[in-house]
Design a protein that fits this description.
The chain is mainly beta. It is built from two helices and 13 strands, in the order H-E-E-E-E-E-E-E-E-E-E-E-H-E-E. The protein starts with a helix and ends in a 13-residue tail after the last strand. Keywords: Disulfide bond, Secreted, Signal.
Amino acid sequence: QVCAQLCRRPCYCPWVPPRCPRGSPLVLDGCGCCKICARRLGEPCDFLHVCDQSQGLVCDYSSASAGTGATCNFEDDEEGCEVNGRVYRDGEVFQPSCKIQCQCLAGGFNCIPLCQEDVRLPTPDCPYPRRVEIPGKCCPEWICEAQDQHLLRDARAAPGAVSPLLRFPCQEWGTEWSACSATCGVGFATRVSTQNRYCRLETQRRLCLLSPCPALPAAFPA
């Protein structure tokens, strides 16, 4: 009866099919006549405007009695999530990009980064590390830039000279010195600090001596 009331024969459709949003494929309407954009999760639906069956969606009329109208939902009432126009089932793991991995959980989703978020501090062999995008690789990588000539000239300046690169006051920051690396004898302690000419984070070391090491016992004769 519904089909006889809503479906006209012969079919009459627009010459140009509609342009659908991302994640909504072109499908035949409820009459099997014209191509329409399939409705996605949570969108209104009816006999003519069908849901995207490729995503396991059906037109749910359970909320129609409350006056809100029917909406597209999973057939087994299983919760899912929609990301970038695509619907994922509850518990499904997916990657929106090569840099993150997500999992659909109870209507939402949790993501973890796949690229390491490490921080590279300046070192004598790499005084100016910089993270850049590498063509053909997903995650950015650290590279070491060569010192500019004006930096080298500034490094030769007097110890009390102020670097012309610092156009703003340097906010000194640093961690506490670590414990000595040796329990006896000479060791070293480290800290991370900006107390340097260029006001950059760097790892600093200093020698430390807690106590002299006891003399080794004389070797027994063979």
